[in-house]
Amino acid sequence: MTSANSLHFKPLPLPSTLNERYITNNASDLSYHILEAGAKGKPLILLVHGFPELAYSWRKCMPGFAEAGYYAVAVDQRGYGRTTGWDTAGFDDVDLATFSVSNLVRDLVVLVNALGYRQVDCIVGHDFGAVTASLCALTRPDFFHKVVLLSHPFKGSPILPFDVSSTTESPPRRDIQHDLARLPNPRKHYKWYYSTREANSEMAPNEGLQEFLRGYFYIKSADWTGNNPRPLKAWTAEDLAQMPLYYIMPLKSGMREAVRKELDSGIAKSQRWLSDAELDV
Fold it and tell me: What's the pLDDT score for residue 27?
């Protein structure tokens, strides 16, 4: 069923080979915003975006998938973009349980059924979308047949304490936030920061958001010379502090300030792969 949401948004600037539409289903509280390419009936490849991204982030990949013989579908996940029906309460009142990973998996199973498919040939997840994709493959291997993860590893199922029934003491847990804060140049982990009210305010649409996001995407790209991907020796504050400031942030800085500290004149290169009109989306 097509949603009335299509009446509230202007059409996205898309290649002619992509279609945009909205789907509702009485099995879900969501109205899904999707992009699609290729012929329905072909093997389904489901594309799941990361943060801060949208289904629109896959627009340049989808024509190639369609040419390869797939029906390619990208969706705005719960909490993102033009998909609606999720809890929009403020920072202190939102029900985080509605954003559980089991709900994210269920969202996609419901969507795929609404599209008229009983299985997904391949689910592809980028960044946070890789978390959703990996858990889809883990929990429903009968439904999601193949998985591709980009920019985020799958560390396996959570490991529970094993063979501890005869002891009353638990081994000490490393508090990495405490260790980072005690460095000579105090730092903090970006994932911890993104769970705070301050981060919520920084990512809301307001003055300077486009400038911030251009810088954010640039310093995460191959065009920024400060990126030097390599394995770390251990999960310690000293090792983590080798990472760029957009990952291991200055303790007293927000993300916008952390990004500004890393910017250089090379940011102009980002116009090659992300125009202002695309960033406006």
Answer: 93
Are 149 and 130 in contact, with CB atoms under 8 Å apart? yes
User: Cα separation of 132 and 29, whole Å?
Assistant: 18
Task: Enumerate the β-bridge partners of residue 248.
Answer: 189
Q: Per this entry, what is the length of the chain? A: 281
pTM for the structure as a whole: 0.93
- Rounded to a whole number of angstroms, the CA Rg of the chain reads 21
Structural element, H or E, at residue 103: helix 101-114
- pLDDT above 80 for 3: no
As given in the structure block, the two tokens for residue 108 are 């996609």
User: What is the helix (H) or strand (E) element at residue 134, kind and residue range?
Assistant: helix 128-139
**Residue 3 token pair:** 């949603």
Instruction: Let me know the angle formed at the C-alpha of 3 by 203 and 98, rounded to the nearest 5 degrees.
Output: 50
